Queue: 2 jobs
Job 1
Amino acid sequence: MLNIKTKNRLSIFIAISALSIIIIIFILKTLEDNVLYFYSPTDVEESNKMVFGDTIKVGGMVKNGSIKTNENEIKFIITDYKNEIIVSYKGTVPALFAEGKGVVAEGSLQDKKFFLAKRILAKHDENYMPPEIKESLEKNAK
Amino acid sequence: MIKFLNPSYIFYLTGKILNFIKIFVIPIIIIGVIFSLFISPKDYIQGDAVRIMYVHVPSAWISLSCFALISFLCVINFIFKIKSISLIYKSLAPIGLTFNFIAIFTGSLWGEPTWGTWWAWDARLTSMLILIFFYIIFILSYKFITNPERSSKICTLISVLGLINLVIIKYSVNWWPTLHQPSSINLAGETTVHFSMLIPLGIMLFGFLLYTALIFLMKYRIETIRVKKKSLKKL
């Protein structure tokens, strides 16, 4: 049906694509730690190679009712519903930073449970809705 | 049937379609802008920043699907040696690159007020940046490699690598923790965007698609003329 030249080109194509897929998978495996944008509190808890004082990013949810603001410091808890980390931060936070929302903190670990943040990024989730809908959803939930 | 494959007939037909599309592009985009800026509601948490999404999401989709189409055509051209296909993928690349730029630029504008940063080296953003480089290398390779045989081979190689990158872009938000949110609009699963926000999104997508078709047809006709001129010179 296909002539020999076409068949040859088809097999070359398949070979090259298979090869490049394998190469890229290997590259991604090697770069695994760099591809991760942030660690979860569980990653921090379980990992042994975390060096205290190095700049890393930790992300998760801001625990409900955990935000405490002093005069020049804000403290909150990042949780992934298994483990928690207390974060301390001085400075302004993004507009979307709120309890129960995603957050990524950049800074250094003081110990496994305490994180000193230099920068706070808010993470937005995939939900988009008008304020009225949100209110009625909350009413229904109650 | 033969009539439809005749290059001069295709040239005539694309001219007609072009004139037809031309009438609709600007009005539809204006309607889309009115819907997205004034009629659609604010978001419950982002406020007015959500309006950037109506440009960002369609342009990201178009840039991804343009590259997917280019790769498909490249592979078909490589295996079956249908020369006229190279005209199509050559004319698709510039508009795909443009929308890729728009997607990254608007995403950056959106990131500042919501995330608190213009740029983050997370998997989704980085792979989107890599796609820009794939587009640029692709365009350079067909511009500067004049031998059509070699050009087709190199374009295929680039587009296959780019195709793997497309898969990475699509699933980056599910495979790794990223700053970028997971996809809200899923054809198979649940869509987490409220209906009143889907209307402007749909209109803008339609307008951008028409614009893409417009630029593509213009480029296609230019490429056709270029090929004809070349063969005239040979005589």
Job 2
Amino acid sequence: MSVTNVLDVKDLTINYDNQPAVDNISFDVHQGDCLGIVGPNGAGKTTLFRAILGLQAFSGKIKLFGFEDSKYKSIIPLIGYVPQKVTFEPNFPATVYDVVSMGLISDKRIVQGAKLIQECGCCWNRIYQTIKKKDDKITQALHTVGLEFLRNRRIGELSGGELQRVFIAKALVKDPLLLILDEPVASVDVESQTKFYNVIKTINKENNITIIWSSHDLDAISKYANRVACMNKKLFFHGEKEKFFSDKELLKMYTESSMQMHMHNHDMH
Amino acid sequence: MILEALSYGFMQKALIAGIAVGLICSFMGTFLVLRRYSLFGDGIAHVAFGGISVGLFLGVFPLWTAFIVSIFGGIGLQKLRQSTKISGDAAVAVVLVSGLAVGVILVSSSGGFSVDLFSFLFGSILLISNEDTIMILAISSGIIATLVVLQKQFLHLTFNEEQAKLVGLRTTLLNYAFVILASITVVTSMRLVGILLISALIVIPNITAMMFGKGFKKTVCISMGISVISVIGGILLSYFLNLAPSGTIVVIAVGILVGTLVLKSTGLLQKVNIKNPSEITHNS
């Protein structure tokens, strides 16, 4: 059996108080894709991610490597997720090393999930599986995100950009087959953004890890994504990035809806 | 003089049981404080008061009824928090007053306070028997062994529950295991400092240790160290000065906290990054 799609989303609808947050959207993600999801604030991007991660009730179908229900749940640990906001106690006594090692906790479930997927003929570079020592795995992940020098630093002492790379390292140590990043560069300085984009480019190209990534940064999407999905509750576009960026009408509509949302938020404040 | 004190059987038992209790309170307390469950100890201890009253009322060994009632209290607290979205501190308040109310009703029905009840309220470490010491040692060993095995899981659960779920941890099961373990810790420790001061042993060594700015394992070790120093110092000092051991233990722990704060303010302690009291929001 061969499965080409990492993810299949069909007729997905999510309602909050009878108002649709995600309205009947369907799309797929191929293995090795770097899918950029664009849409204004409140477009339902985070809600969509939470549904994919099994944290949100929905109607419709979501398949991961063709799997649904209990088998789907068993491979969720193979998804790396970096949320838009991670909240923790300011003086939480955990170092960067402690946080990255949290990614390795449920080793057995990850091995079981990986077996299930490999039976479907899918392969991705599971580089961390070949490293035997836990310590070396963490060193390698921190090296990939360029943070080896902060290994013993308490997480409360890190900048936003450094924290974001720590969470990517935590996701990487478990050899994810799919990495979901929710607006990862919001409030990060330009230098850190460049470092971040280089990291996701490496893990997408060299490790063949599929990436879904939401952002407002159209320049970065045009540079690093190979496919684009544009949504504002409904899905307006899904396909090759060249098609998206050559469609003037679509770009105009996206810019206007983003602007309206921005003005609305500005008025609210 | 110290050797003379240590030659007494009651002092030896007090120190052995006290150190064991100090270790479990500080280890378990690390997670409780970080989960904003600082007053969990207080809440469960008050439920245990209800349990002790049930035991005294029925003529059963009160510690057993305290264990049973407290474990149910802990589970109830967790359910209350999960199913009604009541915040942790409010849920503790509900459970605390419920336990206390049941206790007061039963105590008044049975004709007032007894010596036994006072020893549970204020601690009676110098009066514990050989059997009590063995029981405290056995339970403490079990709790420490379980915490060592589950510490990574508990740490992740404490750090961020949703993220813990996503890496494949069974968070619901772990949450129940956590409150049951915490309830057993509180009831086991009540003999040392009593129901009214139990929170001190859970909270104070941990907030002191967190000021040192170290990682998780070192913070737990520092906290255990502070706890053991407070217990040994408190028991010895109470012997020499004829003071109440429970209060002396807590006063020493508070003294270490104040000393650490002073050291920190003078810059002698490693610089600690204390942010504003609200949670850090990682917006990236």
